[in-house]
Structure to design on (1010 residues):
């Protein structure tokens, strides 16, 4: 199968020994070493394969050779590199069962075939002489075959076997490392991804675990016995061993001064170091006297230009030494580890600061009046400058009303800038406030955008960032560095960007907190200055606080009252149940408003108006607030007024009675004389007597109405409840009213609904009510119709009502007239009274009668079209119903 | 000629009503307070008694009860005369034993109707 036919002639033409002089061992070893270095420098698997083939061809003179690797999935040998086989393409495949090159795969040993033509599995090719097949072992398994051919029979000897075996071994080691490296790269990628998400998963990642994993990976990658990892303590400049793996002791926690030991040395020189025999090395640290390692390789861990730590790898095996390839590998690994460590440290620091920030904000809520916004901002600025490692800085908040920045905290910038106001766009902070983008100014003095307000320290480097909540500007901050060698870079910006949102939120929180405090003080002042007694209770009815008015009203000082059950404190035996009921009502159902009598500390009683409202905070019922208004004076005034009114009513009743007695005589005698005048022969006197009688009757009606009204007001008019037939009553009323109906040429219509049945009420008052309304209707209607309607209705809860309405087609009323219709002594106006007569008391009495009977009277009217009065009364009035108005 | 006992303390009312009733053909005897009214009712038979309620000495309700309680006068018809709309007067009169009531000031036609009805009931109309 070997088909390197192109070179076959040339190869066959010259004797093998001529190009590869036997016995020139030194030269061959040098070539082999070069091959080793070449292989070690190869970055990946296919480069390693090409290096091996090229090195054997160019350095050692083999002209026909190829390198196969086994595809673990199929078992095929896949050609990775070849020389002298122009027709064999890369990735050419040989399946199992064919070719001599399969033999080493079967037993793991070099296989020499002096005469290939005699072998049955030999696939004929132009180089049909001899062939060496050398196994390539990777991690203990035969992973490939190095095939070397010659057109000459038995062209190879023991020297060839040794050289080829050495080359195959080197290839195997290199392949093993390459595979590890590939794994490592993959892991590094994963690591990158992990770090990117660390901000989210920060709580789960611990720096120590990361460091331990990093060290173990390095140990595996380098194929060494063990190692250790140290990180730089920025504060002391010492290296601290944070991970240790199989170096003969657990060195974790060991601190190395600058220059101390191998790691201390590389931290200083920033160059890797190989110590072939550690035991003999003069620079070894006393802290490692008991460590029995043979050789050591150390490298600094640098993140960019910054030292973050050091890593050491050790061989315990004296047979093994560190070489350039190991260094190269370590050099590839170290920066990744350094960056990972730096990021992890930074993240951990950020996390710690975030925790501190959170703690600070939480503390803020507890520090009530003492914490001012300015103090918070100053503290925040100090934290920022230490976090960013800068000289100083300043912080400004945005005054939305003035559209200006106001510097509220300043630290080490050469001047005290607090209070400075800057327009948007002015200076570094003004600029970032306008652009909403951070800004780095390498030298403030040379910057065209500098503000004239900053005259000192102009050689400072400045980095500024806006403080934003979403897209809303709340402020800006700037940090400065006075060290000319120090330049702000992407890393600083990144850290500022981590800090800025926290600062923005903190400012906003502090502002809200200050506003909330102001509001709280406002309400506290409101409560403490309120003339109304206010008490706040928890859900167990216990007093949480009370205001001075409460103390004054009830005589309890707040300290005595707090913690007590309110209702036990200020209610009496008689009012306890009512008071507890109010309190519970507020908690269970909502606001309550009532009046009651409560007890003071000195046992005196006070009449109070009570208002109870639930106190709900963030949707949770936390208690209730009670307001007590002293109404003793009010009640006394009301009682006095009622007494005066009663006295007035009694006086009116008495006077009416006294007036009526002589009036009865006037009416009676005039009637009597009227009856007699005809008999005694003076009929011409009759009209005069009629006038006396008529005027007397009008005066009597007036007096009777006044008497009724005053009795009602004095509470002396009682209900006499009896059962009567409604239809009979209507008939009786219509008969009585008929003369009045006809007087103005009106027509009376009676409309009785079905099933009127009986009423259980005060017949006299029902009658008088209907008569009053009908007589009014007749009085104000001329040649029209008066309609009396009666119906029985049932309302929602089944109670029956009688509804009477009296409608007329008379003069009607304006809304203004209707408004005062039911007031006593009020006809629509004075002229109406003169024209239509009447006492003006009828409707007032009617309404009071209706109310006494548990109902009411209403009116609808339109000027010029007529009026309709509607009376609604309960069909059945219990005798025990209230009697006083 | 039916005999009516008018118990009334007010002189003008007494004078006026008695004269008007006499003009209508009744024989009218008069008492000026409740005690005298009861004594007169028991001393001589009357066809009907008109009893004012607000009387000195013995008031009209009490006088009515006494007349009703005495065997000789228990069936004499009594019409109570009550002041206008005085709370409970009417009910108290009926409860005391009055057969009917009327309110002052007197409307003669209305009162005559009530008198006639009671006399007819007792077969003296």
């Amino acid at each position: 199968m070997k088909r390197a036919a192109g070179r076959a002639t040339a190869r066959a033409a010259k004797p093998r020994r001529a190009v590869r002089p036997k016995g020139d061992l030194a030269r061959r070893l040098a070539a082999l070493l070069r091959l080793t270095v070449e292989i070690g420098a190869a970055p990946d698997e296919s480069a390693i394969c090409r290096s091996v083939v090229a090195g054997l061809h160019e350095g050692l003179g083999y002209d026909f050779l190829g390198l196969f690797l086994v595809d673990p999935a199929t078992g095929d040998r896949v050609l990775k590199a070849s020389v002298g086989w122009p027709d064999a393409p890369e990735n050419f495949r040989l399946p199992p069962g064919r070719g001599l090159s399969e033999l080493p795969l079967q037993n793991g040993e070099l296989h020499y075939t002096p005469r290939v033509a005699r072998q049955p599995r030999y696939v004929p090719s132009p180089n049909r002489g001899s062939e060496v097949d050398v196994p390539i072992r990777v991690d203990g398994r035969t992973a490939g075959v190095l095939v070397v051919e010659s057109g000459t029979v038995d062209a190879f000897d023991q020297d060839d076997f040794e050289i080829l075996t050495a080359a195959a071994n080197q290839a195997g080691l290199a392949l093993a490392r390459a595979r590890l490296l590939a794994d490592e790269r993959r892991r590094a990628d994963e690591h990158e991804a992990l770090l990117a998400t660390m901000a989210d998963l920060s709580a789960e990642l611990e720096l120590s675990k990361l460091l331990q994993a990093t060290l173990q990976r390095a140990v595996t990658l380098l194929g060494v016995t063990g190692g250790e990892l140290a990180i730089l303590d920025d504060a002391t400049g010492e290296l601290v061993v944070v991970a240790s793996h199989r170096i003969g002791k657990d060195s974790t926690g060991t601190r190395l001064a600058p220059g101390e030991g191998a790691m201390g040395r590389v931290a200083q020189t920033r160059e890797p170091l190989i110590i072939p025999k550690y035991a003999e090395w003069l620079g070894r640290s006393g802290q490692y006297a008991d460590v029995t390692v043979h050789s050591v390789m150390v490298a600094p861990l640098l993140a960019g230009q910054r030292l973050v730590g050091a890593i050491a790898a050790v061989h315990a095996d004296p047979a093994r030494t560190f070489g350039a390839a190991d260094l190269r590998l370590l050099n590839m690994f170290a920066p990744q580890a350094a960056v990972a460590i730096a990021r992890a440290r930074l993240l951990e620091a950020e996390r710690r600061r975030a925790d501190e920030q959170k703690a600070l904000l939480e503390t803020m809520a507890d520090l009530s009046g003492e914490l001012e916004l300015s103090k918070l901002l100053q503290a925040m600025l100090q934290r920022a400058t230490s976090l960013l490692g800068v000289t100083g800085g300043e912080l400004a908040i945005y005054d939305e009303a003035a559209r200006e920045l106001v510097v509220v905290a300043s630290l080490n910038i050469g001047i005290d800038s607090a209070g400075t106001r800057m327009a948007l766009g002015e200076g570094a902070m003004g600029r970032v406030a306008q652009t909403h983008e951070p800004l780095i100014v390498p030298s403030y003095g040379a910057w065209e955008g500098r503000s004239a307000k900053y005259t000192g320290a102009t050689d400072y480097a400045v980095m500024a960032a806006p403080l934003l909540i979403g897209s809303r500007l709340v402020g800006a901050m700037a940090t400065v560095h006075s060290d000319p060698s120090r330049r702000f870079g992407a890393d600083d910006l990144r850290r500022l960007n981590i800090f800025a949102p926290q600062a923005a939120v903190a400012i906003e929180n502090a502002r809200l907190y200050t506003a909330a405090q102001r509001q709280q003080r406002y309400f506290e002042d409101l409560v403490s200055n309120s003339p109304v007694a206010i008490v706040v209770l928890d859900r167990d009815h216990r007093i949480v606080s009370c205001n001075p008015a409460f103390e004054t009203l009830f005589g309890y000082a707040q300290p005595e009252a707090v913690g007590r059950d309110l209702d036990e404190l200020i209610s009496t035996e008689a009012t306890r149940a009512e008071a507890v009921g109010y309190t519970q009502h507020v908690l269970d159902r909502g606001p309550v408003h009532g009046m009651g009598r409560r007890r003071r500390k000195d046992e005196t009683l006070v009449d109070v108006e009570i208002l109870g409202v639930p106190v709900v905070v963030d949707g949770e019922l936390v208690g209730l607030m009670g307001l007590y208004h002293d109404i003793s004076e009010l009640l006394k005034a009301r009682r006095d007024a009622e007494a005066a009114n009663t006295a007035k009513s009694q006086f009116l009743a008495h006077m009416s009675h006294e007036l009526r007695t002589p009036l009865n005589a006037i009416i009676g005698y005039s009637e009597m004389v009227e009856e007699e005048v005809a008999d005694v022969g003076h009929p011409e006197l009759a009209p005069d007597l009629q006038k006396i009688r008529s005027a007397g009757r009008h005066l009597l009606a007036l007096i009777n109405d006044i008497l009724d009204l005053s009795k009602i007001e004095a509470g002396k008019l009682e209900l006499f409840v009896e059962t009567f037939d409604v239809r009979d009553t209507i008939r009786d009323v219509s008969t009585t009213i008929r003369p009045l109906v006809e007087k103005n040429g009106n027509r009376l219509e009676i409309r009785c609904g079905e099933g009127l049945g009986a009423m259980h009420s005060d017949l006299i008052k029902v009658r008088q009510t209907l008569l009053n309304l009908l007589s009014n209707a007749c009085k104000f209607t001329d040649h029209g119709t008066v309609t009396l309607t009666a119906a029985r209705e049932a309302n929602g809860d089944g109670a029956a009502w009688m509804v009477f309405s009296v409608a007329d087609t008379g003069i009607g009323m304006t809304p203004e007239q209707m408004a005062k219709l039911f007031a006593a002594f009020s006809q629509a106006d004075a002229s109406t009274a003169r024209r239509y007569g009447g006492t003006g008391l009828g409707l007032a009495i009617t309404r009071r009668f209706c109310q006494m009977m548990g109902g009411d009277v209403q009116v609808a009217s339109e000027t010029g079209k007529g009026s309709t009065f509607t009376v609604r009364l309960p069909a059945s009035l219990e005798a025990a119903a209230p009697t006083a108005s | 000629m039916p005999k009516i006992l008018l118990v009334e303390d007010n002189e003008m009312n007494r004078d006026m009503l008695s004269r008007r009733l006499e003009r209508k053909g009744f024989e009218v005897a008069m008492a000026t307070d409740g005690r005298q009214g009861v004594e007169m009712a028991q001393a001589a038979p009357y066809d009907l008694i008109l009893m004012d309620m607000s009387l000195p000495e013995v008031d009209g309700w009490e006088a009515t009860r006494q007349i009703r309680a005495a065997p000789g006068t228990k069936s004499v018809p009594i019409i109570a005369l009550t002041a206008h709309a005085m709370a409970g007067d009417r009910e108290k009169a009926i409860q005391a034993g009055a057969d009917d009531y009327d309110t002052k000031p007197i409307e003669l036609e209305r009162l005559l109707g009530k008198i006639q009805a009671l006399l007819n009931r007792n077969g003296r109309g």
Notes: DSSP finds five helices and five strands in chain B. The first helix of chain B runs from residue 11 to 23.
